[in-house]
């Protein structure tokens, strides 16, 4: 598909208002968002285009994973979500890699401190436990600290019902086939789970258990390879106590287990299918969050502690044996902040955040001790939000990062916006800075470099948002320009055969445009869409499409039957593989691809039981997401959800 066709299809889709995850509820002015101030703020007063995927929207996408849903948001690419279920996933926002994007669960940062890039594994989160997802793009280190350089993904888990006892049980099964396979659509994708929750007087509670098992296709691309499996178990418990109207306490604990088989990586295409390779990840998190509301404000503490342990069995062709490796991390996060309303138009958020991370690793090639590999930060920060009665709004703030290794580092943001009273239009712009400190692995592993400098980012963006026809038609466009310096890289000296993490010299640029549109004909028919243009320099552009289009139709056929149809176009990308014979990395151009997915959901018994059927990759397109790895072809899924 040439560029003219891409631009034509993007403009046509924008004009008709098609896209999957932007519906009218996302763009209504009365909608509340929290990501850009940490407190509830009417979307009309926010200077950011924040995408909120609601519980209603998640139900329309029944059968899809968190990664697949995120990949339909403008400016986001989740690579690996079209591969086998166990494939690790990288997510890119505005050209930024996983390490430059911060994931929050119920407002608390989550990370794997033993990982190379401190990134969180999206595979650990079951979509059945998610209530909503809020995505704020752009640098956000002022509010959220290191890692929030190109975007923040705030995942809110489900809450307790108001009645004494409530709950649900669900089950689904589906196929797991490649496009090239002779499809028999045998059931190879199984999910089931239940939850119990409620509120009794001043106490609320919630308990959930989810399990999934997927097999049927090989991770490696090739003929007659064995099927790789992925299994996930998730358990969450929440408990809340509200002694007064002003004070409440919330506790949570959750356990996540992920097991999978995996095949050789891109550096060994001659022997990709390996039966001995296995991985197991376990995560345990718990936390405590008191909140106190007073006349002019609110005081909140988020505290969370987590342990992640990963074990790998990896077959080595050099020794003809299986090598064992173990990685373990411990993290603590305490974020205390206070909102004080100086007037009806101005409030200030003053806070301080403490984080501690440590890791250890043991394998045939490396040993890292948590006695050495640890660091901590203590960050005071302030944000002021001014919302005038004439439509002028500004969000500005600063954070001083105090790192026990890197000392002090200041980041800040300025985000003005203006809504015209006479016209349904809002103009917005922002300038923000961010930073990313090296991970413990990049500092203390055999490839570590204690002289690494923190990576620095700055982003400027500007755009507008329209709300027409009493909010039936919404349209927004944002242009951004991001620069990063001290970019982390992995360098191998081909003379001495030594490898080390380094900072690249120079400044690297990512820029682009994002447009989103939605139109509600009536309560039965909704059309929505987005288009992303992302241009990055060659050093940053691997696997990031320059053009991407998402489109969808939401149709309520009857009062109990709902149909969702979505289309996605992903432009050409560049991947690479390691040619071991010539000791060289060889770039590979990947063709563009198009996907069409459909879901039908029917309320079989009102307020009691819902059934759904979905088909992904409807036209069975055969494409490459990653060199050397399989992608999913046409697959079906059936399921039900019973409420009590």
From TrEMBL:
Family note: Belongs to the TonB-dependent receptor family.
Hey, what's the signal peptide range on this chain? 1-20
Against Gene3D superfamilies, the record matches this protein to: TonB-dependent receptor, beta-barrel domain, TonB-dependent receptor, plug domain
Q: Which key words tag this protein in UniProt?
A: Cell outer membrane, Membrane, Receptor, Signal, Transmembrane, Transmembrane beta strand, Transport
By what name is this protein known? TonB-dependent receptor
Q: Does the keyword Signal apply?
A: yes
Going by the entry's taxonomy, the superkingdom of the source organism is recorded as Bacteria
Tell me which residues make up the TonB-dependent receptor plug domain.
Answer: 47-152
Name the lineage: Bacteria, Pseudomonadati, Bacteroidota, Flavobacteriia, Flavobacteriales
Classify the main location: membrane
């Amino acid at each position: 598909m040439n560029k003219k066709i891409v631009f034509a299809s993007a403009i046509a889709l924008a004009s008709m208002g098609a896209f999957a995850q932007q519906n009218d509820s996302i763009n209504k002015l009365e909608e509340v968002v929290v990501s850009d101030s940490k407190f509830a703020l009417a979307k009309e007063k926010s200077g950011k285009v924040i995408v909120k995927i609601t519980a209603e929207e998640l139900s329309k996408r029944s059968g899809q994973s968190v990664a697949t849903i995120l990949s339909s948001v403008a400016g986001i690419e989740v690579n690996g979500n079209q591969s086998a279920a166990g494939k690790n996933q990288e997510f890119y926002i505005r050209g930024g890699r996983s390490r430059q994007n911060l994931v929050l669960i119920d407002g608390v940062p989550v990370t794997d401190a033993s990982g190379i890039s401190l990134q969180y594994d999206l595979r650990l989160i079951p979509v059945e436990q998610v209530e909503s997802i809020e995505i704020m793009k752009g640098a956000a280190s002022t509010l959220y600290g290191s890692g929030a350089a190109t975007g923040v993904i705030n995942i809110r888990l489900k809450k307790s019902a108001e009645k004494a006892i409530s709950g649900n049980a669900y089950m689904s099964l589906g196929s797991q086939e490649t496009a090239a396979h002779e499809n028999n659509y045998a059931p190879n994708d199984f999910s089931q789970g239940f939850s119990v929750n409620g509120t009794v007087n001043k106490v609320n509670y919630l308990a959930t258990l989810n399990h999934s098992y997927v097999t049927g296709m090989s991770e490696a691309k090739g003929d007659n390879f064995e099927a790789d499996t992925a299994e996930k178990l998730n358990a969450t418990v929440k408990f809340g106590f509200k002694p007064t109207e002003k004070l409440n306490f919330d506790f949570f604990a959750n356990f996540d287990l992920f097991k999978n088989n995996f095949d050789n990586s891109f550096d060994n295409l001659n022997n990709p299918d390996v039966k001995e390779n296995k991985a197991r990840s376990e995560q345990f998190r718990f936390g405590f969050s008191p909140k106190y509301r007073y006349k002019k404000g609110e005081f909140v503490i988020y505290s969370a502690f987590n342990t992640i342990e990963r074990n790998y069995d990896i077959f080595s062709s050099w020794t003809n044996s299986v090598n064992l490796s173990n990685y373990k991390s411990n993290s603590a996060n305490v974020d205390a902040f206070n909102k004080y309303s100086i007037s009806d138009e101005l409030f200030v958020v003053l806070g301080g955040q403490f984080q501690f991370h440590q890791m250890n690793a043991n394998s045939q090639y490396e040993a890292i001790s948590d006695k050495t590999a640890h660091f901590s930060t203590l960050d005071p920060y302030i944000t002021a939000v001014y919302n005038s009665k004439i439509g002028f709004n500004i969000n500005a703030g600063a954070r001083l990062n105090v790192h026990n290794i890197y000392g002090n580092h200041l980041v800040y943001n300025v985000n003005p916006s203006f809504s015209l009273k006479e016209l349904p239009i809002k103009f917005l712009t922002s300038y923000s800075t961010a930073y990313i400190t090296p991970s413990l692995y990049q500092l203390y592993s055999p490839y570590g470099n204690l002289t690494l400098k923190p990576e620095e980012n700055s982003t400027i963006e500007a755009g507008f948002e329209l709300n027409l026809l009493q909010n039936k038609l919404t349209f927004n466009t944002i242009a951004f320009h991001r620069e990063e310096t001290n970019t982390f890289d992995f360098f191998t000296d081909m003379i001495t055969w030594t490898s080390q993490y380094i900072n690249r010299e120079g400044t690297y640029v990512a820029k682009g445009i994002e447009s989103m549109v939605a139109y509600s004909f009536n309560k039965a028919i909704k059309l929505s869409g987005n288009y992303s243009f992302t241009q990055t320099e060659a050093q940053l552009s691997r696997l990031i499409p320059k053009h991407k289009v998402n489109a969808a139709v939401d149709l309520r056929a009857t009062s109990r039957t709902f149909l969702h149809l979505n289309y996605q176009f992903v432009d050409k990308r560049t991947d690479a593989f390691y040619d071991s014979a010539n000791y060289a990395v060889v770039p590979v151009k990947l063709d563009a691809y198009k996907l069409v997915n459909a879901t039908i959901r029917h309320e079989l018994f009102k307020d009691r039981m819902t059934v759904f059927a979905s088909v992904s990759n409807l036209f069975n397109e055969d494409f490459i997401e990653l060199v050397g790895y399989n992608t999913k072809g046409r697959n079906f899924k059936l399921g039900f959800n019973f409420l009590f």
